[in-house]
């Protein structure tokens, strides 16, 4: 199982599944990150927090803990 946290800069991946419960999952979905969507990893901070991504044309910053909940292929 690979998560968004494991993806190096410059790669595009497809979201396979969102893990997590309640408000955390809702916050990720409110950013437009849903199953089947492509996510481009723009930048990862030196210690992996935050992970900057492009989703649906929007540039977003994700906390490392949130990126670990997004399963990708």
Automatic annotation (TrEMBL):
InterPro entries: Fe-transptr_FeoA-like, FeoA
Listed SMART domains: FeoA
Residue ranges annotated for the Ferrous iron transporter FeoA-like domain, each copy included: 2-73
Pfam family, one: FeoA
Annotated TM spans: none
Superkingdom, natural source: Bacteria
Protein name: Ferrous iron transport protein A
Species: Faecalicatena faecalis
